[in-house]
From TrEMBL:
SUPFAM superfamilies: Ribbon-helix-helix, TTHA1013/TTHA0281-like. Transmembrane segments: none annotated. Residues 18-79 form the HicB-like antitoxin of toxin-antitoxin system domain. InterPro entries: Arc_rbn_hlx_hlx (IPR013321), HicB-like (IPR031807), Ribbon_hlx_hlx (IPR010985), TA_system_antitoxin (IPR051404), TTHA1013/TTHA0281-like (IPR035069). Coiled coil: none annotated. GO terms for biological process: regulation of DNA-templated transcription. This is HicB-like antitoxin of toxin-antitoxin system domain-containing protein.
């Protein structure tokens, strides 16, 4: 059975968020969707723009007959783990996330993905 646009939009593709040191703002890409890249002034706007970019990328792929690869299986990962950190770091993360206008969870995901991208090259 052929997958629809909504089938692909419902799948969890890995999103990478990188701070643009020169131009300001944040760049978002989906490594499993070649050329699907966007940006935003804040993490929040960059992520919102990324959802629109992903939908446009899928629509263009359908029109052009490009093969769309499904995301790597994440079945064996729950997406949650417990982390103990010093209270001073907890306070700092809470303050920075509030300043960015995002939840502390979103802010920590951004920091982890940015640093993981550096080490995975």
């Amino acid at each position: 059975m052929m997958k629809t646009l909504n089938d692909y939009l419902a799948m969890s593709y890995r999103m990478e968020i990188v701070e643009d040191k020169d131009g300001g703002g944040f760049v978002v890409s989906f490594p499993e969707l070649p050329g699907c890249i966007t940006c935003g002034d804040t993490i929040e706007s960059a992520v919102a723009n990324a959802e629109n970019a992903k939908k446009a990328w899928f629509e263009a792929a359908f029109e052009s007959g490009i093969v769309i690869h499904e995301p790597d299986s994440l079945e064996e990962y729950s997406g949650q783990f417990k982390l103990r950190i010093p209270k001073s770091l907890h306070r700092s993360l809470a303050e920075h996330s509030k300043k960015e206008g995002v939840s502390m969870n979103q802010y920590c995901v951004y920091l982890l993905s940015r640093n993981d991208a550096v080490y995975s090259k």
